[in-house]
Every structure is written in C-alpha cells, then in structure tokens.
Amino acid sequence: QGSTALILGGLAVKSIVCLAKQKSCRQRWNIRPSEMSINTLNPIRAIVDGMKLTPNPEKPMIALSIGDPTVFGNLPTDDKVLQAMKDAIDSQKYNGYAPSVGYQKSREVVANFYSCPEAPLEAEDVLLTSGCSQAIDLAITVLCNPGDNILVPCPGFSLYKTLAVSLGIQVKLYNLLPEKSWEIDLQHMESLIDDRTTCLIVNNPSNPCGSVYSKEHLQNILSVASKHCVPILADEIYGDMVFPGCTYQSTASLASDVPILACGGLAKRWLVPGWRLGWILIHDKNQIFGKEIRQGLVKLSQRILGACTIVQGAIESILNNTPQEFYHRTIRFLESNSEICFSELSTVPGLTPVMPSGAMYLMVGIEMEHFPEFQNDVQFTERLVTEQSVFCLWLVSASLILFLIPCLVLSCFD
Fold first, then answer.
1. Fold of 79-321
2. Hey, what CATH class is 43-74+324-407 in?
3. pTM (whole model) above 0.90
4. Out of 63, 149, 225, 356, which residue is the most buried by the measure of CB atoms under 10 Å away?
5. Where do the domains of the chain lie?
6. Where are the membrane-spanning stretches (predicted)?
7. Tens digits of per-residue pLDDT, 377-406?
C-alpha cells in the first residue's frame, strides 16, 4: 500500500507539473488562421484582386469583369419594386429580427409564386436566405461532409468550389460542351460519380455560359441522378431570364423521384443584387430528404439571421405587382447586347463566341495560335487592360481558353 501511495503521489505531482507547463505555453501568443480560412479561395477574385495593372489613360475603362447589373446605371429596377421597399420601410413592421428561415407570410408568397402542378410548394418548403449565395452555401453544407464530393459544371460559377473546398469537400468538374450550346457532357458527368458523391449541381440558365437547357436534356440529367441516387442542387438564379424562342423549365418540374434543392433570389431578374434576398425551394415528392435535411437546413440558417427583413416585407408586392413589361424590357436589352457582342466578335480571327440563350453573359473561345505573342490567357487579358482599357474574366475549359463577357454594359459605351 505504501508503494502504491508513492506511485500515485508521483503521478499527481507529474500531472501538476504538466498542467503548469501547459498553462505557461498558453500564455505565449500563438494565433493561427483556421483550416477553413486557409482552404477558402475564390480563384477569380484572387486573380482579379491581385492584378496590378494600369489601364490606358487615353481610353475609358470598360469593366467586363463584373456581373452586377446595377453598376453602370443602364439597368434600373422597376418603380413598383422601389415603391414596395419604400412601403415596407414606412410601415415600420420590419425593423426587428425575423425567424431564421424568414417570415411565414414571405415564405408563403415565394411558395405561391414558384409553385406549379408538377412541383407544388408550400411555405414549409421555402427558406429565405441572404441572397442566392447563402442559399447555395446552406444547400452544400446540409448535404455534404468533409471527404464527400460534389459534381460541378466546368465552365461554372466559381463560388461552388470556393464553398466546397473550404468545408473539406472534394470538387469534381464535369465538362460542358460548347459545340452543343454548353449542354452537359452526360457521359463524363456520370463517370465521376462514386459512393461519396453527395450532390450534383445543375446551373440553368447558366452563369457564365448563357445556356438554357431543353426539356429533353434536363430529363437526361435527372435520369443520371436517379440512376445513381444523387440529389440535385439546382442553381436557378437566372430562372426565366431567357431570350425569345427559348423556354425555361425548372429542374424540379420535370423530376419524378430525384430530390432537389432549388436556389434562387431577387438579384438578377429584379436587378437588385445588393438587397440580399434569396431562397431555397425544397422539392421532395417521395420524402427522400425526409425530416433530417429540412431540420438541418433550419439549424444551419440559425447560425446567422441572414435575409433582410425589409426586403422580406416587400417581397409580396415585388413578386405580385412587378409589371411584365419590366421583365420583357430587361430581356430585350440583354438579347440585343448579346447579338452585338456575338456579331462583332465573330469577325475577329481566333475568337469564337458562343451565342447565349439567356442570363447575362457570353463566352468567347480564344485560339491561342492566332496570338503567338502571348504565352497564355492571363497575358492576353492583361494586355487588353493596359492597351485597350478592357477588363474581361477568363476561364479554361478543356482545350479552350474562354472569355466571359457580361452582356449588360454595352449601352454605356455606344
């Protein structure tokens, strides 16, 4: 017993010494960034923000590197939309906190606006978010764990990868086919699916390609998802922003068994990206998501109360009272600018524009052999800035180097 007491006493003394050492260590500054912050990278912003270029002082800057329709003042929202916001402010009903998923009445309004017989919605199927970006963030986060993988279009919106990689989620890029107006290479996409694939992202109408998928193509995409039991995140922020002659259909309206989280918002169609109101529409006809995914989305939304209450108060009037002529006028403007871009760029040897069918962008393939003085697309882009004061974004897809040209700024430079 005496020996046991000595051993125990020695261990106690040793533990006290170790604790004292740990305490002294903690008294030294050793602040490190989190793994999530280290892993977070927006590739486009990283390049654009890091470029130290001086535009040609003799030429006005033409910034084709931004997808904000409000910047140049040539695409204002409708007066009815503005009045709805003014009325919401004057009512003084929306100055406090809203529920994390949004006001019940506002959720009902969004559900009624987007509900259709093929894909019915109720208020409980809608979560309001701080813009479509937060909707995408919540959708990825609720479906995926570190080590899982998601399927992302290439070319595609860079935020998908930024969000996923920061969470330890692998991104697998599936190809889009420029020769088929940026349809998905279904064979390639299917080949990427494995046991840890937890989400397929479908962006239609497309940023940055401007494509609008046909009913048949969407049905083929759904068939692949159904075959492999992979849910879909449908990024439909540009829904209904399609040119005459094209028809937009939501992915959920064609789905029979595939569960879908459809993400959208006010930003693009109503030309108010700074108002930060988006939504997730939960389409789950067969209760495959079940209560768990819905509860997960609610819990994630409670981390930050994101959706602006003033805009929530205005949403009923915005959705129900905005005149159809406003939508038509916006589409005519974008289509006209797209046609100008396509027509003029088609005359340049080495440039191959692809005419969009909707959204706000036009993609241009660059055959680098026509420009031997440049080693790569970055040099080409930098010279555009320094020589011509034209700033574009660039992407690489398969063997093509592509320029992204927003079709919303041209009237400023006529």
1. Aspartate Aminotransferase; domain 2 (3.40.640)
2. alpha beta
3. no
4. 356
5. 43-74+324-407, 79-321
6. 393-413
7. 778 888 888 999 888 775 544 334 455 555
